[in-house]
Prior knowledge:
By secondary structure, the chain is mostly helical. A two-stranded antiparallel sheet has the order 1-2. It is found in: Nucleus.
Amino acid sequence: MDLISALQFLKLNQIPSEWVDAVWDSEFTERTPLEDSIEDELAVSGDGASQSIWAILGENKVSIKSLVAVLSFFVLGGKDKTANIQQRVSSLHAASIYLLLLGIPGSIANKVFHEVLLDTCSDLTSHCWPQDSGKKRKKDGLKSSQAEGKRSKPQRKDNAEDLMKIREAVVQLVQSLLRLLQTFPLKDRPQSAGSFTQIFSKLLSFEPIVGGSTFSAEQDINKLKSVPEMAFYGLQLLCSPTHGEQKESLRRVFHQLLYVILMMKKGNRGKPTPLVPSPAVLSTRHQAINFICHLVEELKELALPFLQILLQHICFQMVEKSEIRSHGAQAVGMLTSQMTSADYACFIKWLFYFSRKAKVASRLFSIDVVMVLLDQPERKAEECQDPELQCLLPHRFLIQSLLFARRTDDSSTVKGHALASLAQCLELPSPNVTRAVHNLFSATGAQTVLEGEITEGSSQATQKTFCTLPFRTVEFSSTEPSDCEARENLALLLRRVKDSKVNVRKSALQALLGLLKHNVIPMIWENLEKLSECCRDPAVSVKKKALSCVGELLAAKPECSVVQKAWLQGVLPAVMDAESSVQEKALEALDQVVLCSIKVYSADRHLDAGQRLTWDLLTLLCNECKNLSRYFSRAFGIWSKQNMVTQTFITNLISHTEAEHASGAWLLLSKVIASASRLPYEKILDALDTMISSNDVPVTTSCHILCVMGDIATHLNTDTRDRIIDDLMSWLKTFSLPLEVICAAVETLYQLGRSEDIKQTQAFLNQHCGELVSVCEAYLAPIILSEKGAQNLNEELMVKHLHTLGVASLHCPAKVGKRTVLLVESVLTTRSEKLPGCQEELPASLPRSQFKANSMPTKVRAHGVITLGKLCLQHEDLIHKYLPVFAREMEEGKEVAVRNNVVVIMCDLYNEAIIREQTLIMLTNLLQDEIVKWKGSLFFRFMVVLVDPVPAIASLCEYCLLHLLLKKNPEMFSQHFIECIFHFNSYDNHKSYNKFPQSERERLRFSLKGARNREKRFRIYRFLLEHFTDAQRFNITIKINQTVLACFADDELPLDADGAEILSETFRILSLKEMKLQAVMQAAQKKVVSQVQKKIFIENMVPVIISLKSLLEQIRSPVLRDLMAYLQVTMQDYRNEVKEFFSGDEQLAAELEFALKTAGKETEMEEQMDQCSLTGVSRTPTAKRSVQASAARSRVLFPFTFATPPPPRPNPPSARLTHIDRLVRRSGSMALEGTVMPKGAVDNRAISTPKGDNIDFTFDEEVSAIFSDQITSVIAESSVLDVRSNEQKAPGLRQWNVQSPLRQKKKGSIV
Length: 1311
């Protein structure tokens, strides 16, 4: 295409000169419209004109002014929101032409350059390219638009072909921009250079880079494939001296790339918003970091100062989100790798102070940076010439001064992150890192410490300048200070395992696991016990973490017996956990370690590591950890329901019963036998015969064999059962068995004789167990009754007879005669050398008739106590008879074993609290498993336990209700609340409530009726209401009105004495502060809720209230006072709308307004009296307080004469009245004017009495603090008590609250 043709395409001669002048006068800020005919011709002819205009433009006399004006017309047309595809492509082509024109030498002289038009052309991509094209970032775009305070632009829907056209035009525009930068210097135009830097930074995320990008000084623009590659080259060109001072250019480029590295979107205004770290965003970030590394490598000394600044800004502007922090730390690590050792040490020095900033995100990010730096090769001290900076280069400084120092941070998040990172350090390959961690917890090593280092939190730390830091290196050998410090570090870590914050506990567990796995701390039970205990942590996530830790430790140290014990202690109890997910995790661990490793036994095959571990664990359960084996019963019960206990498993298990680890096999067999369908009974019977005939079978194994025998008793025929019974009886009569085996044998005997007919079972037990009782009695009688019977006493045989007697007597109480009881009693009589004439010195608890000399050994007497206790369990009349005997042993006995057993027996026989506690636990478990339902009076029995006289039981009941039972049934409290009112007042006249069946004994035993139980009832009401949701509070108020108040108003319930009590209590409940909505709401929400409450109250409550007031006035009922008190409490928030509420009863509205006004005046007067104080009194020394205070008690106190504060004394009763009671008095004196209140009526009508005034005495360094209602706000602002001595405190005047004698007289008159 020749020049003339190209110019004809543009039709410059047809452009009106007036229009051209108007465009230039507008400074290209807005598009000036052309005539429609000319605009249509230009739109048709614009395509293709830009391709050849550059070659012929300089040789023709063309109106440059018109040409630029026409180009601007196309450029500005593409910026319009409604521009179509052709307009946008033409706009991009026109911008490319303008940039090419601008690059021609002499363009400035010919007035082609215009700064506004240049900026518009270079930034045209952001207007022509759809912002959401090919990207799934609608959420981010929405956030960004909100942050900038603008509405998001309407999205244009373009197909793939149109997008390719626009992309080609964008590529051409960016290439033109790069060619412009190669020839057109921006040295004198810093604003344009800044704009270009921003534009290229935006283009970095235009599209992903295919393959890697290379950065070099000279590149062929036409060979650059993607727009981001061109943008990086453009940024590189901007850093050349041609476009201004290089330092300023580097600053601009690094500043724009900062947000790319931070993965943030920076708008024209407002704070930058984080982007979702998608693969495209991460790729752009990675390329930006590589580009910065290239610039630093090329420019070196020029770029290093700006690299320091960039790193500091990355740290300062990092957000708290963990994923973004992790990517940011990796960026810091990559950038620091380009630094010299001296610059690196300076950055570490700055990072040290940054890690102590008050901002939590800063301290968290410093830990992330440390972890990335530790993964890099350690720098040598010789590489840094400054001796003060050399000690910052080793990894030891990062671990000990930056990472481990955060273990005592104020923030639990930082603490937890530091401990978790410490555990990760041990997994790093660097030996120097591992050695540094060892130095923290071992007695040898070298540490670099910072003088004056602060490790106790960071909230008070201030940002310091870069002054010289005095460092000292302290070499530790086997000295006491280092050993002490190591012990303190370990003790602190163990305390963090019990921290109040969940995340800290989890991180401390991870750190403890790492130290144990890598042998940093000794593998002793004191350290491992913490892991096991955390498996029972209150937090579910901590329990799961602890289970994972003990499992990981067992996998790392499978042959360590202490680790095996810790694993058993942690995992086995977790199968009974209330949280199902914890149960599943524990069962999964047991399945992997135990169930899956039981293979068939073969003498020729060696056990692998997993099988050896399984049998080692089972051996431990049979010996050291016997008490844990019972949890296997629950585990196998669950597995059997899931069909996990297969016949193959049982067969494999039985094959080990004759191997070297038979004890473990019998243990598992005793737990799984109940769920097995087919068993080889012959092998089990052979094992029983072997056990009876041999004395080599261990005690634990014998018990498990007997247990298995009892479980299969129902599957044996009569002849076999009779033979086993005879063998067991013969075996028991030898009295050669260990005590544990005796118990197991008697229990097996019971299983063998059990039948569906209870009488037959008892007859069997009377026969066989009675025979054992007779044999034991025949052996004991000669020894105890004969004067010389105890001379040649076989102590072991005597103990076994006593034990057998006690165990057998539990199954046949009818065969225990008086003679048997007296024989056992005689074992306990106290040894004494007193003569018969010294009876007056005996303790009062011992009747003289029960005293006789005794010479039995301590062991015999200790077992005698247990046997006598078992006899008392079967015969209640013996309990009171032998109480003096047990009391005598506690007073005079010297044997520890005897006294201990007496305490156990007395707890079992006489402690009702333990019975209530165990019953509560049992019922809770049954309710959790849904074996027992919430029917009848069960819920109300739980409520009675809430006010149990034993605080521990009441606390346990509260825990069971809130943390175990309420989770399964969140509506439980609200469903039973109204019925509680009727039930605890023993009121059964209501047609719906308190109608479940209960005996008269139950009714009397659990009744809380009457004024003396009012406090207990209201403790229950408050407990229930405190754990209501706001929706439940709102609904229960409406329901009380409909089912209680309306029944009295409609005469469905009589207003007799019991009815009046119910109505009075109902009004008092409605007046409780716990009935008000508790949620914290915004002002708008609160207004809406208030309006809804108001509407409900007017429509539903007010008519019933007016009817009740009229009814109560007619019968002159004292309940009227409670009604008025309730109205005063309710109308506090609507005091200006009383007439609107009670428009149907003007008298009630007037009375209520008067009562509210009177109450307000009295409250104001009380506040003024409370603020009456003295301000001119000198402060007396602390040492004289007690003397002067005691003197103050003995003299009359007149106002304004105190030299020291008066001693604390209880307030008069009137001061302890609740707010409700005060309202009751005011409303009573107002509504029942002229009536006389009976004496004691106020006391009888008190809803509840607070536990006491909120007074707390804290004594430390002769300082006491009194927390009262008047200084609650002060205490809230300063939660730390000042315990400085008088010399340390600043002198000042003291103020003392002094009550007016008039107010004291007023309170006294009320009482």
